[in-house]
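User: I've been going back and forth on whether these two constructs are worth ordering. Before I decide, could you fold them both?

Assistant: Sure. I'll take them in the order you sent them. The first construct and its structure tokens:
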Amino acid sequence: MKKSSILLLTLFVLIIVSCGKEDLNKESASHENLVSISEIKEAVETQLSKGEVFYWTEASDKMLWSAGMHSDSVFAIGYAPEANYDIESNIHTLDIESSEWKDAKSNILALILEKEQITREKKLTTKDILPFGEEKVFPQIIVHLTNADLIAELRASPNVRFIEPIGFSLEDQLATTRSNEGCGSSPNYSINSNDYTTISPSTKKAWNFDTHSIPSAWRQSKGDNIRIAIIDTGASDYQDNLGSQFTSGDSGGRNIQKYSTHVSGSWWWASLDSPHDQCGHGTSMAGFAAGPRGTDGNATGVAYKADLMTIRAVKDVLISSSSERVGTRNALYLAGGRSDVKIISMSIGTPFYSSTVADGIYYANNQGKLIVAAAGTSLSWTSWYPVIFPANMSQTTAVTGLRDNGYQKCVTCHSGPQVDFTIVMERANDDDRTSISLASTTNQPKYTGGSSCATATVAGIAALVWAENPSASRTSIINAIKQASEFYPYRDGSFGWGQINALDAVNNI
């Protein structure tokens, strides 16, 4: 190597190291006098103990700022021409390139740049503060902040709908490594023979399908021509039942499409991840909803003739990082904007209300999609939490899982007044024996349970119902399922309308 090249390389490394030290010193200074993680945890769990999801709007300026500094210093700002603009009803019709919306955005960015240039002591452009670039669809600004004074000023702006630290998660802060909750890709080679039945052409039917009269419903509907979108951790490239064998056996004449909205990294090194599932959770959820009734001995799904769309938006069942919140929002836009998608299944969530994601929920809901969401993710140490976000939103249909001994929620499931439906998916005498679905590899299924399993199962039942009347409205589908549930016409305070009878639901439409 020439000496000049060596000198240039050395100089480049020195500059990077110098900048890194400068950033570390600034970061260290910015962490002085913050609200501690334990104090934030106490405030959050005080709210959760009341049966309510935590809203950042209820946090003080200092706590909001501290949460951002304890994570990646990235904040989401929702904007509008006026802060009280009815986003919930109108988000699907917005043109954020119109003059009034551009003016609102410009006002906020001008304020941020003014303050950030003081803190960072240099001239900045918008590109220098937007780690994910300019938002093209939603009225949101995802921004990296270093000036604590901005929190109060932004909250006081007539153009700001919300501001929240989208990279903060208690689960990530309290663990030494990422939790990987809900992940697990390995097949189970010791599935109890009482937990499945082999049916034609050569596939395994999970034991709990009979509890909900799903096989009886198959005599009338199999989910033909209805597309289900699974927003989760993706679909494994190594599971051929979600690939070359998706149309095997009795599941011909349909298709599967795979997408990703999850970005790794930010700034100039950001890259869109592949749709491949590195966790295993999304693969199993796709299997529950619409796995093929095939010929290889694997587990079949509920709507085994339905079309499928898998979207990798998160790393595991927790919507906890900036990339995951943005990815989930973008997945809702992708699925919500597709005319062929009828049902969106979300076996993911968080105890924190996310206005960033809520905009995506509003958009998909306004497009007529039936959004089915898990009442609680597989966090055994937080199973006392109330129904989590986004299942606690009125725009979603919340589902939880039960044991097979009456209305006893599964060991990792949540219950509460927002729950709409229940699915039996866990043995009372052995919580390791749950329902079965696709593993990430091989033709051998795996045990998978929790509200996640229950949610994807209800998504499949909804496809069976909708296939009977493809022109029906979302309201009609929900009403048909309600009327086929155990408690109807009454609603239980913890378990909603109760257990679903899939055959009755199909007949009701």
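The second construct, handled the same way:
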Amino acid sequence: MSGLGKQEMPNDDLLFLTAAQAGALIRRRALSPVEYVDAVLAAAERAQPRLNAFVTLLPEQARAAARAAEQAVMDGVPLGPLHGIPVSIKDQVDTAGIRTTHGSAIFADNIPARDDIIVTRLREAGAILVGKTRMPEFGHKALTDGPGFGVTPNPWDLSRTSGGSSGGAAAAVAMGLGPIAVGTDGAGSIRIPAACCGVVGLKPTLGAVPWEAASDAFGNYTYAGPISRSVTDAAVMLGVMAGPSPRDPWSMNGPSVTALSPRLIGGDLSGLRVGYIAQASNPRLDREMEANTRASLDALAALGAEVEPVTEVIDWIEFPGRIMYQGNFAVAMAKHLAEWRDSMDPVLLAFMERGEGFSLAQFRQAQFARTGLFRAIQGLLERYDVLVSPTLTRTALPAGFDAAHDEVEVEGKKSGITRQGWSAYVYPFNLTGHPALTVPSGFASDGLPTGVQIVGRWGADLDLLRLGAVLEAARPWSGRRPPGV
């Protein structure tokens, strides 16, 4: 028998509590961490055959941690901000004694000896690790599927993708399989699946949250960040995860992300300058996606924000960005080809082949272009407090979409490869380092979620989360749940 009061709400409602709500109940001894974790694990096991969100579930470890968490509550000891809260970790982040496969047969038996510092901080905050979530091989594409595990579909429509590369994390959170998850974002990989699945995703400022796994720490553009069903939960996770690591040079003197601009304390946004980016390198935008983005902008304007379109011509460096992205994969993965080529994702192999075709001069020119893009965005943020765009050009792609060869269709018209036709708004901010948040903006007529992206100045992560919370209150999204819950 649990030492705390038995929860009396139906399991479905329990699963869709925010972490903040569940944490408050645990502290009041109105919810048992053991019963909470049991409910999440049972739901994850039921959903796994159709959702395929997890590489590994950890029932024994999670239940042991839940019992310890419950005893801590009974003993009256100080509790961390995520005490008793189930969390899943993307399978790209090291976990001591637990497989970290990177979505690849190459690392199928890889068992790290140490936790990544992010995992250490979450554990110290009281979070309970319930599983590792699916990702495409080495996080190379914006869909979550692979030759070794099949497809992780969208919980709103199993014929569509959950996005990628943190698709398992976003699908799990959307489905109620834990209120929070850790994702990583090398070219939109937190924001794309969060937008596809109708949840919150934050790519922090470069250096705010350490990324210890970077092969090139100094040239890094991959980030770890929170995925959640509420903005408050994302903010709490950020506060836990942020801070320096001796393994990440960007984090050693990283920006403080705990300060909120005074003008955002209340609900009056008068004087807040918002620049609307209607189009990046994408040739077109779905009308419903645009309408839901404009509705979010209208909500900010109704509170006093000054919204205007960005009229500058920006070189979004789509092709130079591709040179760096595919070139890096070609070099980093070359050592595996002799033994593992036949087991690797064909899309990754295609990216590597293209990357091998770029010259050193092209790669260095692309890096110079990255600096130019950074300075262009800095220029915009001298005039605007934040930038707002759709997160994606359309709702989730078909689950069988071939990211190496297929063209994205927007309103029936071919619009280029994924980074041109679908995710053009997200990758630029990996390259510039600015924080970028996606929050739900509504639903399209196909029943799938849409998302809006908010981008801010370096270190202004909390400002973005505050504006996300304003939208969450003005245009609530948490009342709808995927079918089959």
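Notes on the second construct follow. The longest helix spans residues 360-383. The two ends are 27 Å apart (CA to CA).
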